[in-house]
Structure formats: structure tokens, C-alpha cells
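Hi everyone, sorry if this is the wrong subforum. Our group has a chain we'd like a structural model of before ordering constructs, and none of us has done structure prediction before. Sequence below.
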Amino acid sequence: MGSSIARLLHAKGVPVTVYDIDPVRGTRALSQGFPVAASLEAALERADVTICATGAKALGHQDLALLKDGSFVASVTSAEDELDLERLPQTHTLTPVGEHITRCTSGDRHFYLCNEGNAVNFLHGASVGPFIFLVQAEILAGLSALSRGDLAPGLHEMPARDRAAIAATWLTHFNDRTS
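Answer:
Right subforum, don't worry. Here is the predicted structure as C-alpha cells:
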């Protein structure tokens, strides 16, 4: 998810720096033209906006002190997955400054927390809706193919005819043909 966000922001002209604990993903980001921060500290002290997309506690409580003063922090997974916010009310003054934005102040420094650390991509209760059924149908079709035992070890792409059948079924069920 992080690489998709980086590409989309870059396409809109937003300067993006990537930090990843996995050197392979860091190498991939650099090869795609993204500057890669050498450390989490280096990334946080320069970032105006930090978007956490790891699903694996991207920021611990101690990392909050490293954030650039006045920067924004957003997550695209759940707050529990990305951010250690349990002690935040004890160490910071939390002031709502707008709908879904909280100013977190400690001493003379502050940062802004988006959507209380919860996923900003589901801000208004949105979900992937019926589109998830397309993914689930392909997973089920893949499991069916695997269970037959006729596939060699390795990665396999869903055959085009199966993908078309799944898409046609989905369209029949979910497409509003009255408009």
C-alpha cells in the first residue's frame, strides 16, 4: 500500500521520501526514483506529512518526539497496527483543531494526528464495498484450482476466462442497469 501511495503522490508532484525497514523494498523505491531515508529518525525529522502504511507498528511512542514540529501523521491501516498511541494522552495535550484533526502538544513542540490515528482512507465509514467480492471470488477460484492438484509449484495468474466469468457475475449482481 505504501508504494502505491508514494507513486500517486509523486504523480501529483508531491515530493516523497520513503523509509522502509526492508532493504529490498528500499532498493525498489530508490530504483523507482524515490529518495530513501537512511533511518526512521532521518525520515521523521524532515517530513511534513508522515503516512504509515506498514501494518506493523510504524511509530512507537518514543518516535513521536522525532516528528518534525508541526507535521501531520496519518495511517492507512488501523491505529492499533501502525501507531503506539496508548500513552499519548499522558504525554501530550490533545486539542481537536478541526474535524478529524487533533493537535498533539508536548512542551514547545506539536504534531497533528489525523483521524485519531485510524485509517484516513476509511475516514467517512467508507469501505471497499461490493468490490471486495471480486477479490474474494478470485481467491476462491484460486483455492479451487489449487485443490484440484494440477498446478505446478509457483505463482499462477487467474486464467482470463475465469476472471471474465467472475467479472460478468459481479456485474450482473451489482450493476444498476436502470441508469
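For your construct planning: The beta strands are 49-52, 72-75, 93-98, 101-106, 109-114. The mean pLDDT is 85.
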